[in-house]
Amino acid sequence: MFILIIATCLTSPSSAEAPAPEKHWTLNELIAHAQRHNAEIERWHWKVEAADARRRQARAARILPHLRIESESGLVPEAIGDVYQVADTSSFRPLGPFNRTQLEFGQPLYPLGRIRSLNEAATKGVDVERADLAQARLEIAFEIKEFYYGLLLAQDLNDLVQRLSSELNEKKHQLADEDGLSLSKHYKLELALLELAKQEREINTKIDLAGAALAWRAGLPPEAPLPIEDKWLAPIATAIPPLDELAAKAISHRPDWRKLQAGLAAKESLLHAARAAYQPQIYLGGGIRYAIAPGRTDQRNPFVKDNFNYFNGGVFLGIRQSLEWHLLSADVDKAKAEYRELKARETGAVQGIRLDIRRAYMDYRRTDQDLAGARQSRQLARQWLQEARDEYNFDPATIGDLISAFETWAQLEQNYSQAIYDFNLSVANLEKITGGLELSLND
Question: Taking Cα atoms as reference points, which of 269, 282, 277 lies closest to residue 328?
Answer without folding.
Answer: 277
